[in-house]
Amino acid sequence: xxxxxxxxxxFPMRWTALLPTLVLMAAPAHAQVVHARLGLTGATxxxxxxxxxxxxVRQNLAPTLLLGASVPVSPRLHAGLEVSLxxxxxxxxxxxxxxxxxxxxxxxxxxxxxxxxxSQLRWRAAAGVLKYWPSDNTGIFLLGGxxxxxxxxxxxYRRALGADWSIVAGVRYDFHQFTTDALEARGFxxxxxxxxxxxxxxxxxxxS
Length: 208
Description:
By secondary structure, the chain is mostly beta strands. The chain has one domain: Porin (Beta Barrel). The protein has two helices and ten strands. It has helices spanning 13-26, 181-185, and strands at residues 32-43, 47-49, 55-59, 62-72, 78-94, 97-118, 121-134, 147-160, 165-178, 192-207. Strand 8 (147-160) and strand 9 (165-178) form a beta hairpin. 30% of the residues are buried.
């Protein structure tokens, strides 16, 4: 399967940090909702090879920071942008023996829609890009980390703390196809399906 890859230079980190601010500047002041959360994200294997011997590469549970902003586009729907950054260890397992491969960081930018489900529960569906930053350009990341398209779904529960502030807890699931230039150079022609699930909690503010 051919990997969908976005040039890294199109999404430099300085623009990633500014995106929530740009969304807020474009929206009416009374309509803005911003949130910040911390949590953990787990992922399935990045690489699985069982042709000659069983080898897997997987990122460990990654502490994750999530920032977001949304504005209403209809009485029931909001459009929103979320930026997340996760950092976790990377391990390779070969025939039951585990090897530490250092640290792997991931950054995700998604744009999507959200709406009400039940009471304080809301849904979210989004699409965007995900970038991998390994601490060392070795092994499967010998030629650098990839940038891939990602699809995301999620749900949030909000409990008001006052007129403007609320506690927000939620889950995020995303899916993408993973491969690297180093894997392709070694003859791995198919991408690996990677599923990630994150649980996060934080605060939200409605700016009126």
